[in-house]
Every structure is written in C-alpha cells, then in structure tokens.
User: Fold these one by one.
Assistant:
Number 1:
Amino acid sequence: MAKTPTLRPGKLFINGEWRESSDGQRRDVINPATNVVVSSIAWATTADVDAAVAAARAAFDSGEWSRLSGRERSRVLMRISQLIRENSDELAYAESVDVGKPITFANIVDVNTAADQYEYVASLAQHLDGATRETPLPAFAFTRREPLGVVGAITPFNFPLILSSSKIAPALAAGNTVVHKPASDTPLTALLMADIFTQAGVPAGVVNVVTGSGSALGDHLVSHPDVNKIAFTGSTEVGQHVASLAGQTLKPVTAELGGNAANIVFADADLEQAIGAVISAFVFNTGQFCMGGPRLLVERPVYETVLGILGQAVPGVPFGDPMNPETVIGPLASQNQFDKVSGIVSGAIARGARVVAGGSAMELNGGFYFQPTVLADLPSEDIAVAEETFGPVLTVEVFDTEEEAIRLANGTPYGLAAGLQTGNIARAHRVSAALDAGIVWVNAWGLLDPAVPFGGVKASGWGREYGPESLEAYTRTKSVVISTL
Ligand code: NAP
Ligand code: MG
C-alpha cells in the first residue's frame, strides 16, 4: 500500500528560498473533514509582499526567464507538467485534506487538470508570434508579443491547484514572473508547487508564493507600482474591489468571479442523461463550484417526474469521508462555508421550501458535512435561488415555454455558465445562443478542458482563462516600424 504523504509546515517562497514571515507569525491549516489541524503556514506581512514583488521584478528584469525563447520556456513547462503527474499522490492528498475534496476527484480532476494546463500552454509558448503589417509607409512594420512583467495572482479556496495553474501557467508561458497569494483556508498545494517549479528549472524569483490574509495583503499587492497585472479568481464582491483598486494604477485585471448558473431541462430531453448532468452540476466539489448549476429549471410536463427521480437518486450519491475512494461528496471547505450553507437552507425551509432531498447537516468525525439538498417551490427572488449558495444545494423551478426558461436563466446578475438538456438540436442552438453566459453545456454539465476558454459575463467577471485566449491576458503587443528609406 502506498504510504500516506506528509505535510511539512509551510513557509513563504521568495526568490527561490523558503523563509518565515518578517514578524514570525504563523497560522494553522485545518482539515474540514475532521476539524483537526493538519499543518501550518507562515502568515505574511506587507513587507513580505514587498520582498516577493522585488524578487519577481528583479527576476523579470534580468531576462533570465522573460528573454528565453518560447521553445526553451516550453520545455520547462513540460517538465512542470511531468512533475505534477509524478507527484500526483502528494498533491492530491494535500488538496483533499485542505479543501475536503474526495481523494478520487482530487486526483483525476484537480491534479490531472493542472498537469494538462501546463502541457497545453507549453505548446502555446512556442507560438507567440507577431505579425507583419503591409502599409503604404516607407517602412517595414511588424508586431511583437511581449510579456507584461510581474503578475499578481490571487486565488480562491475551492480549486487551489487548478485556479493557480490557470494563471501561473500562461503567465510563465509568456515570460512573466509571478507573486501568488493563495486563499488563506487552502494554501497547501501552492507551496508544493513551489518545489516543483524549482525542480523543473524555473529560475529563482520567477514564481513567489506568499501565504496570508487577503484583506491585509491584497490591497498592497494590487496597488504595488512594480506589479503589472492582476489575475484574480474569487467572489464578485472582492473582485469589484480589486478591479477598482487596480484601476488607480491602470493595471489590467482578469477577474473570474461568482456564478449562479441555471440548468434547463426540457421535456424532450433524455431524462436519464439529463438527471446525471443535473446531479453532477450541483454536487461536484460539494457544490463549491463557480461553474456549478445550482438553479434547475424544469419544463412543466416533466417537473414532478424530475423531482421524484431526484428525491430517489440524490440520497444515494456516495457522501462522507473524502479519503474513501468511493466518495463523491465530501464536507464543505470550512466552518464559514458550513455556516453560510446551513443558514441559507434553514431559512429557505422556514419560508416554505419543499424539501425533495437532504436539508440538514450530517454529523461525521467533527467535519463540516452538509447533506446534498434539493429544494422546490421557492420563488425566483428567494435568496436560496437568487444568491450564490456555494454548497451542495439545488433549487428547482418550473417553466412553461422556451422564452420563459431563457428569461429565468438570464435573470441573474451572474453569467459564468449555463446549460440545457434537450433532444432537439434546433432548440440546442437557439437556446445556447440566447443564454447570457461565458460557457453553455448542452446535454452535459461541467465539461472543461485547457483548450476551451472559460470566463464570465456580467457580474461573473472579465477575461478568459484556458484556450489560446489565455495568453492574450499575459502579453502586450508592441509595433515596430523600421524605415526603409
Ligand atoms: P474570496 O473571498 O473573494 O477570496 C478570493 C481570494 O481573494 C482569496 O485569496 C482571498 O484571500 C483574497 N482576498 C480577500 N480580500 C482581498 C482583498 N481586499 N484584496 C485582494 N485579495 C483579497 O473568494 P473565495 O471565498 O475564496 O472563493 C469563492 C468565490 O470564488 C465564489 O464566489 C466563487 O464563485 C468564486 N470563484 C470563481 C471562479 C471563476 O472561475 N469565475 C472559480 C472559483 C471560484 P483570503 O483567503 O485570505 O481571504
Ligand atoms: Mg472567502
């Protein structure tokens, strides 16, 4: 049997070295499946952020990374991808005890996707081509795609490894350097990745990791004059704050923010396939999935049938200890998340929601477990429907026409994802075009790949990660015009 990986206490990773925070403060890391301390991290100060930015600036200016050819950077990115796969047990274990992720998913989704991302951008790094431009000028004109400089990457608690890779991989591919601040509750894989960067041959100072409080360090990093771009994923509220602060120094920002996507089941859908998509859309990552589908809209002729199937099927989804390889739904990632989800569900039940499945917490090993829950008969304005719950909670509404389904689906400030389940190909085209979201799934949910861009519209944010588009956010175009006279 493979031995259980161990987690050493974390330090800050600055200029290729591990160090304590400037004031020596540390903070515990808690396993949400047991509410037991599993490790600790250094708790950075703004002086540590300054040191990390200075290291990233010096590394960028030295050209040791930024002026390598794309092909040379590509080789290093491929090595990072290989090392992620070679260390998959350790990374998956850390992600699982940090976030409460079922170990099977931590491996096949989180670790694999991170490795895939580095592999994918490794190919893009070799094609950062400029263009020649024909002009009537007495000149030869061409463009160059150059890195931006120092990137500040700020990531949320729910997919630490995937969402840091979705920033650091394209940033590195384009020749930038990085200061990464992971979420306070889930910092562990960011620290393991620092070792992988070093082993892969990323020069000192090119990636720096500062663990600490977003509210204490975030403004400092975002407004730092030596930081050239901010890549943020997190809540809409913090994203708005970050974007307005970045505006003062005119830093470009990518902001992947909250979501509250609708999943529409038409009566002409293959119900068995549709129910599979409906369930995975709201239980995946214990519902802490910005691109999840927590709002189900069902066409009236199959409404009660769908509720009946959900009532039978949802309690059967394997739920419990994330270290059990069969587990699909684990605990929520923190006491905060648990309190928020419990509050929203108990409020909705008190306001008259019909409980189709779940509805309450589950006592297991002292962890933050909340049962997968399906609630029907709530008005669209109820906060359980209208706000991002970020837990394993599905609300179900009924509709009568395609127009009404589109109106309900779009009737949210968010626009990250949406989905529809239908057997009618013409409807699939019509409705997917009408949905106001960055990605639309048809007869599926949650299919994501580093080649396929994702990102939000409306309050779900700015910019796209993944795909060739991801490199655009980490490069700038310079025009060079050389006289031919
Ligand atoms: P959050 O509270 O907004 O935190 C995100 C990150 O921002 C954390 O690292 C946090 O640090 C940091 N932060 C907090 N205050 C800051 C400030 N004033 N300046 C700069 N950074 C600051 O989000 P979360 O609770 O971790 O994650 C859940 C949210 O992320 C949900 O809304 C979800 O929809 C969204 N999300 C979106 C996507 C997407 O792709 N669109 C993907 C995943 C998650 P601390 O941890 O230290 O507070
Ligand atoms: Mg938070």
Number 2:
Amino acid sequence: MAHDPNTPPPKPANFLRGIIERDLEAGTWDGRPFGGSPGDAAHHAAGTPDPARIRTRFPPEPNGYLHVGHAKSICLNFGLARDYGGICHLRFDDTNPEKEEQEYVDAIVEAVHWLGFDWEVGTTSHLYYASDYFDFMYRAAEALVQAGLAYVDEQSADEMRARRGDFTTPGTDSPFRHRTPAENLARLREMRDGLHADGSMVLRAKIDMASPNINLRDPTLYRIKRATHHNTGDRWCIYPMYTYAHPIEDALERITHSICTLEFEDQRPFYDWLLEHLADLGLLARPLPKQYEFGRLNLSYVVTSKRKLRALVEEGIVEGWDDPRMPTIFGMRRRGYTPAAIRAMADGTGASKTNIWLDYAVLDQCLRADLEGQAPRAMAVLDPLKLVLTNWAEVYGSDDFVEPCEAPAHPQRPELGTRRFGLAREVWIERDDFVERPPKGFFRLFPPQTLADGSAVPGNKVRLKYGLVVECTGCEKDAEGRVIAVLARVVPDTRSGTPGADAVKVKGTITWVGVHDALPATVNLYDRLFTEPQPDAGGRDFREVLNPRSKVVVQGWLEPSLAGAARETRVQFERHGYFIADRVDHRGEAPVFNRITTLKDSWGA
Ligand code: ATP
Ligand code: MG
C-alpha cells in the first residue's frame, strides 16, 4: 500500500508488534531461503534468502462477503507486513468444495484492494489458492501414514464421537488404530481412488486419545466427499480438513507469523505437531511458521456471522449484501465509510487477547476525522418547507430577480474553489426551522407574537446562510391546519459579504436552497439496523430487535453545485452530516444520496 514515508501511520503498541519486533531483533527469520513461490522443503532450499523480513497472510474462505471483522484482520495482517518490511499474502482458503464460489473470490479481491492493500511485489503476485496445494497435502498424508503417524479409521461418525471422550473423560482407541502403515497406505489410496463411499472412513492423525486437549485426540485429516471443487473440478473425492490444511498452507508459503482469531488457540498444539513432523520427514522447510491468536472484532448494533448476514439478505430485511446498513465491507463502502476511516478504526483497536465490541460511534468518529478536512460542503434541505419573501419586488424591482450568492466549497481550503447559487423570492427551508409558538431559546423563524401580558414581540429575524437577513411575518396553512409556506420580509442591505451586512444582529442562521435552482434528490437516512447493542445476545432472535427506522427515505432539495456529482462523491450537507452519492442507485438528474453519519453522535439523543 502506498503511503507517504514522511507521515508514518500511527502504530499503537500491541502484543503482535512486540512479538515481531523481538523476532526481528533476535534474527529468528533471517536468511531463510525462499523459492520464489510456495513449495516444499526442496523448493525453498533451492531458493535465495527471503527478501521479505516477515510473511503474514489473510486467508479468507471464499464462501461469503467480507465483513468488518475481516476488515480488521486485513488491516492487521497487511499492516504488520507493511510496517516491518514484510509481505502479506492473500490466500483463498478454498479446501472445502461445497460452499465456495468464484463470485466471492472476485468480491474479496475487490474488497481488499478497496481497503488500500496489495499483494503484488515487483512482478510477483502473492495471491494463492489453498486448493493448489492438494497434491502436496495428499503427499504429506501418505508420508504421515508411512511414518506411523496417521491411520485410516472405519468407525462410524457416532462411534468416533462416542470414543472421543470429553473434557473430563479421556477418549479410547479406535479398533482400527493399530493397523500397519502398509495396510493404512493401501486404504488411503483406495479412499483417494474412489473405492469407498462418502463418510465410510476417514484419515486420522495418530497422537493421543487421552490428551487433555481434545483437538489432539487423533484429529481427522481427510474425509471422503464426492463434490465438484471450483478449482480442481472432480479430480479429488477426498478433501483435507481445515485444521490439517491450514498449517500446511502457511508452511508452503513460508509464512512467519500466522495470525488467527482466539477460537483457534486450542488448535495450536496440533498446528505445531503437524508441522514439526512434516519438517522432520523432510517435506517442509524450517524455520516453521508460528500461530498467534488475537481477539475478534465485533461491531455493536449489528450481527457479523456470515449465516446471520445471509438471513438478513435472504429474508429481505435488507436490500442486499451491499445494503448500506450491512457491516459487510461492500455495505460500509456503499454507506460511504472511507477506506482510511476503516483502517483508522482497525489500527486504533490494536490487537489483544480478548474479543472486543466496538461501537459504530468509533467508526463514525474515524469517518468524521477523515472527511472533515476534505469533503466539500453543500446546502441541502431534507424536510422542505417553502419560505416566501413577500417584499422581494419592492427591494429588487421584480419578483423574478435572482441575487447571486457564493460560498467556499470548504471553509479551510480555498483551493477547492467556490460554490455559486441564487437567492430568489422563494426558497426551501427545513420544516423545523419554523414554529408558530417559539419555545424558550428558539432563535429561528417565528411570526410576531402577543405574550400573555399583552405585550407584542416582533417576528424573528434570521440570516439565510450566505444570503441575507429576513424577518418572519406569518405563515400559510392548508385546510388541515398544516403549515405550507412561511412568509417573511427581506431586510435590505444585509447580504453576506457586502459592507454593513452585519449591522442587523441575528441569533440564528438557517440553511436553504432556491426553489428556482434547487436539485431534487432522494436521500436515504440510514441508522443502526438493530436497537440493541448485541442483537443476538443470549440466543435472542435478532429479528425481534430490528430498528424500524434504520432506513428513512426523504425527497429533498440540494444546492445546484451538486448537479452531476459523480457516484461515490462524499459531501458534508451543512448542519446535517456527511453524505455520499450512491454508487448503485444513482440516476443522473435526480441523484440519490446516502447519509453516512450525522455531524455529531446523536444516537439516543
Ligand atoms: P465468519 O465466522 O464470520 O464466517 P470466518 O472466520 O469463518 O468468519 P474466514 O473467511 O475464515 O471467515 O476468515 C478469514 C480471516 O478473517 C480469518 O483469519 C479470521 O480469523 C478473520 N476474521 C474473521 N472474522 C473476524 C473478526 N470478527 N475479527 C477479526 N478477524 C476475523
Ligand atoms: Mg472460517
């Protein structure tokens, strides 16, 4: 990823950085040969010293769309490689034939790129598919069998389960455990050659059925499964288990630090057992990768399990995987979160040994910090009410006169230029900028009042931002008594930017757009999808706590500077928050904008 070397990214200390720094100091990984691509011990031995000081990897299973937790893992693995002169591989962990699809592979590539990371180094692409290692994995399985370290078990699944024991009871040996290596090898080859039915037998490691760690009680390495694989087609009818495949993938790629989430902690002894034996057998190069576990990242007010995200999509609760309320990377992108904001959120949460719950507010703060200095400003009226300036012709000579107004595109960045729009007799204002009877402290528009003691209060004066001061005189209502227009008079000689414009003091300034030049727009106001921070806590059905107002669609008016705004343009609508021109549902003349977040955290206010 490209970043300015003069402004290094913030690097909060965390235990993974500590481990890597100690390894680099001790030279743990110095001079290890690398064969230029993934491979076995001989392949790497024939290579040259690895130019990468460390190697990490992001290993998604291509069985769904990536979510915010994956974004965390991407930022962590690619970020560590970037910061320590290493290389991070993108590896598709596609060893499970049934659930994986090309659609997800493409989406993952796009999501990682969008987050700002890259796996190309010079002319080498470090994008790998675990299924390319099936040949090696099978070869390793035969080697384990021949070394007496694995056996074919023909027990039924129920028998295997019954003999596995539990936390308090040791397991008992399978009656098939004491077959000779030659018998096991013959059986394994029959499995491979399709001579046995799905599920009739498995290959297991021969470790210790009495181990206090249940993962070491002869874990399954291979199962028979007649399924077409997206990469290898029908070549295999046996497939490796994840716990067998993953350590081998890391070692073939010469990963140094294999970073995974906490639930794999109990698998680490098997990870080491397997790699040590395969290195002893001469199949894998030393030094071997080491596994480190960190806590998962969860976002409050959403769910992140792929199964639950799928349910939201399939039941039509949201409008797709990229619905702006979804915590998927594509959802966050469409919502308008920037890659920089997501990276800042990930970096800011470091890495720790406990699972963490992060509030959307943290992501929103990162977004505001990123956009405050760069997003152009614009005025938008989202709940429109017409304001009629009744003395317009008196002041300007004609009801059709348009007073040109301008405003900086960004208050601190003159180089971004100037927005221009016109003030005319009729403008749109926000409905809640007018009240007939003002509560205490209301400084926006209200008509003349007669107080309880009979005294008269004049109609209030406000400044139309970048325009001029107006004094409210009354309103018009429809038959139901609903206000349909506010009436006011222009106070002459108060136009912003002209001498003496400040002579008339006002306490309120309101935003507006001209009826004659406003742009109609559909604006989606998104909020949290659920009303509870942990929607699925305690086994609750998350459907019970959906926020009915997570998407509110309004028809608003935008200032004309937004005409033709490109898809994914991010803007600050003054007083309202940050918005993005929708990247999908965006139609030329009447654009669709999505609210990313308000200007300050208003949840629960
Ligand atoms: P899910 O359980 O949501 O389906 P997963 O762990 O099965 O996710 P993988 O495709 O296997 O999804 O994950 C790829 C990588 O992303 C793994 O290294 C995994 O540890 C990491 N990862 C997944 N979810 C999170 C999370 N919530 N926080 C941090 N890392 C995560
Ligand atoms: Mg997984």
